[in-house]
From TrEMBL:
Alphabetical list of PANTHER family matching this protein: HTH-TYPE TRANSCRIPTIONAL REPRESSOR PURR-RELATED, LACI-RELATED TRANSCRIPTIONAL REPRESSOR
Protein known as: LacI family transcriptional regulator
Domain HTH lacI-type: 4-47
InterPro entries membership: HTH_LacI, LacI/GalR-like_sensor, Lambda_DNA-bd_dom_sf, Peripla_BP_I
Keywords linked to the UniProt accession: DNA-binding, Repressor, Transcription, Transcription regulation
Organism: Paenibacillus albilobatus
Gene Ontology MF terms in the entry: DNA-binding transcription factor activity; transcription cis-regulatory region binding
Amino acid sequence: MKRVTMQQIADHLGVSKFVVSKALSGKGGVNEHTKSRVIQAASQLGYFAQKNAYIKNNEGEPNVVGTSGMQSVIVLMPNIRFQTKDSLYWGKIMEGISRELEQKGLGMVIVTESRVDSFVHVLNPSGIFGMIGVGQIDSELLLETHRLGIPMVLVDHEDDLIPTDTVFVNNTDAIARLCNHLIGLGHTRLQFVGDVRFSRSFQDRWIGFRKALEQNGLEALKPIDPMITLDGVDSGEFAGEFEKWLAKMKEKGQLPTALVCANDSIAFGVMSTLQKHGIRVPEDISVTGFDNIDDADRSQPALTTVHVPKEAMGERSVKKLLERIQHPELTVEKILVSADIVYRDSTSGPRKQ
C-alpha cells in the first residue's frame, strides 16, 4: 500500500508541509484549530495507521525504574474528579491492573495529568515500558503517546484518530440480553436513560437497547439523550432534569413500564426520584442498571444489573500490553470481555392496567 506522506496531508489541507510537521511533532508553533485539522486529516488519510509513522523506540529494552527499582508501566487516568482508584467502578479496574502487574514483576506509576504540555515531561520514550489508559482520555494525550512509539492499551475507551488495542466489556450484547429479559417479563414500553455522548460504552449500550427492541418488534420511546449532561452522569446533577421529565410523562399518561439505565449510578438516582413521587419499584416501573458496583445489592430494592468483570478487564489490559510489546507487528485488537446479568428485586412483570 502506498505510504501517506506529510506533503499529501499538506496538499489536502492547503497548508505547508512545515505546518503539518509541526502539528504532528507535538511541538509548538501551530494554533489549536490548525493542529486539530491536521490531526483529523492525517487520521482520515490513514497516516496514523501505517507502520513507522512516528519514530519508534528501538534502543533496547525500555526501562522505567520506580521507587522499588522495578520496571514500571504508566497508568494514565486523567479524569481525576470522578475516575479515581477509590471509585466503585474505576477502582476495581485499577486493582486488576495492579494485581496483574505485580504478578509479572512490574510496577505501576499512576499519572493523572490532563494537560499535554505537562504530560510530555512524563513521556520519556527511552524510559517507559508501556502505558495503559483508563477511561476518558483526550485525543492529544493519546496522540503524544502514539507519536513517541510507546506501546499502549486503552480500557473502556477508544479514539477514532489513533489505532490502538482496547479492552471493553461486551456492552451491546449484555444490555440486549437484559432488555430481552424485561421483554420476556411482559414489558413493551422500555426507556433508555443515559447520554450516549458520555462515553463509547454508553453509546454501545444504547445500540444494544435498540437492537433488542427492533428484534422484538417494539418501537423505542424517544431517548432521554438531551436530559443528562456529560458532567451530570458522574455527579448526579441529572436528577433534577429527570424529575422534570418524569412529571411531564406522568401528566401525559405516557410513563414507561421499565427504565433501562446506562449505569448503576444513574439507576440509583432514578429509583430515588421515582420513590419520591410515589412510584413504586418494581411494582409500577422496573429499573435496571449496568456495572454491578458494590452498592447495587444494597440499594432498596436491590438492583437488577449487568455484572462487569472490572478486575478482569484490568488484568486483560496488562496481558495485552505485554503481548503488544513482544509482538508489535500484530493486528490491533478490540477485546470484549463477557458480562453476566444479575437478577435482583428492582424488576418484575409490568403492572396490569
